[in-house]
Write a structure and sequence with these properties.
Layout lengths: L1 H25 L8 H4 L9 H15 L9 H23 L9 H5 L2 H10 L9 H14 L5
């Protein structure tokens, strides 16, 4: 039993150290997940331990009281942080007149919306077919982080 506890402790330390290295390499908490960020020992392969280390680092960041568990309050706080970051990105991207508020015109996107539509309408016929819509969804899914 002592050997099992010791082995589990060593494994946990390795995971925490590897996750710390991955976070340190990324420079901030919400970096995109890349192969390089998951390959903590830089051997050109992602091991199961490295993948678990990445997930453990997310737990460690959200576990503000350090008890090894996520409470409802910690999950809500993490969600609030993400919502705040997203709102700030939206404001910086959409507030074209920089007045600190989003008008209906800014929210609907003006030229941005036109460019987005045009990117989805690959054949340029002025309408979005089901296959163009599905292709756009696939492209967006590929850009999403794996662990969210």
């Amino acid at each position: 039993m002592k050997r099992l506890t010791f082995t589990a402790g060593v494994a946990l330390c390795a995971i925490v150290l590897a996750s710390g290295m991955a976070v340190a390499k990324s420079g901030h908490d919400r970096s995109p997940v890349t192969f390089e960020s998951l390959d903590a020992d830089q051997n050109g392969e992602i091991s199961r331990a490295e993948m678990q280390a990445s997930r453990a680092s997310h737990l460690l960041r959200a576990d503000t009281n350090g008890d090894g568990q996520l409470s409802l309050e910690e999950l809500e706080a993490q969600g609030a942080e993400r919502a705040k970051a997203r709102a700030e990105r939206m404001m910086s991207q959409l507030d074209t007149n920089e007045d600190g508020a989003l008008s209906q015109e800014e929210m609907l996107g003006g030229q941005r919306a036109t460019r987005r539509f045009d990117r989805v309408d690959r054949d340029g016929d002025g309408v979005i077919s089901q296959s163009e819509f599905e292709a756009a969804q696939d492209r967006m899914a590929k850009r999403r982080p794996v662990d969210e």
